[in-house]
C-alpha cells in the first residue's frame, strides 16, 4: 500500500463516507503501451474525483494481444465488465487527456456528456460540433440505446465519429460544459497507424449501429487484476 492516495481502496475505488452518492461512476481507459501517460493520468484523476466526492472506480482496459488497436471493442467489453459492479455512469477516457479544471464534473448529470471540449492541441476550441472523442460520460440508458460502440474500427480514427452518428440516429443531444471549464491537456505521443477504411466504414453508420455493437459483441472473459489505483482488465480483442 502506498502512502499517497490513502482514501483509494483496492481496484482504484472510492466511496464517500459523509454523503450518499447519486451515481456510481466507472472510468474506462483504453490502454496499450502508454505507461507514462497512465501514471500521469491516475495522479491527476484520483485527487479530482476525490474532491468531487464521487463514488467511482477506475478500470484500465488493456489490449493484451498484438492485433491492431480496437478502442471501441475495448470500451464495449469494459462497459459490460464494469456494469457487473453496478455502475450507473460510464466515462470513456483516453489515457492521454489530463483534466485542467476541478469543475469538470465526472458524472452523468446529462448523457451523453462530452467532457473534453477544449483541448490544448486544438487551441482549446471544439474542432467540430459532433465530436464525441477524447472523454465522454454516458448513462446506461443512452449508451445501450445506441448499442454502444462499433466493434469494427481498428487503428486510428473513425470509431468516435461512428458513435456520434449513432447519437444523431437516435435523436440524442450531445451536452458539454462551458469552454472555460472543459479544458484538457493532451500528452504527447506518436501518431498510431491510420485506419484507411474509416471513410468507407462511416457510410453506413446510421443503419449498421443496430447490428454492430453491444448486441454483436463476442469475447472471452478478460483477466481482472485489482491494483491499488486501478482495476486492470486484460482483453484479447
Ligand atoms: N491507445 C493506447 N495505445 C495505442 C493506441 C491508442 O493506449 O497504441 C488509447 C489511449 O487511451 C489513447 C486513445 O487510445 O489516448 C486514443 O488514441 P490516440 O491518443 O493515439 O488518438 P489521438 O489522440 O491521436 O486521436
Ligand atoms: Mn491522443
TrEMBL record:
Main location: membrane
Membrane topology of this protein: Single-pass type II membrane protein
One record GO biological process: carbohydrate metabolic process
Molecular function GO terms recorded: galactosyltransferase activity
Keywords (A to Z) from UniProt: Glycoprotein, Glycosyltransferase, Membrane, Signal-anchor, Transferase, Transmembrane, Transmembrane helix
Residues in Galactosyltransferase C-terminal domain copies: 114-190
Protein origin, superkingdom: Eukaryota
Keyword Glycoprotein belongs to the record: yes
Stretches assigned to the Galactosyltransferase N-terminal domain: 6-108
Coiled-coil features, chain-numbered ranges: none
Subcellular location: Membrane
Pathway: Protein modification; protein glycosylation
InterPro entries from the UniProt entry: Galactosyl_T, Galactosyl_T_C, Galactosyl_T_N, Nucleotide-diphossugar_trans
A cellular component annotation (GO) from this entry: membrane
Homology family: Belongs to the glycosyltransferase 7 family.
Protein name per Swiss-Prot or TrEMBL: Beta-1,4-N-acetylgalactosaminyltransferase bre-4
Organism: Magallana gigas (Pacific oyster)
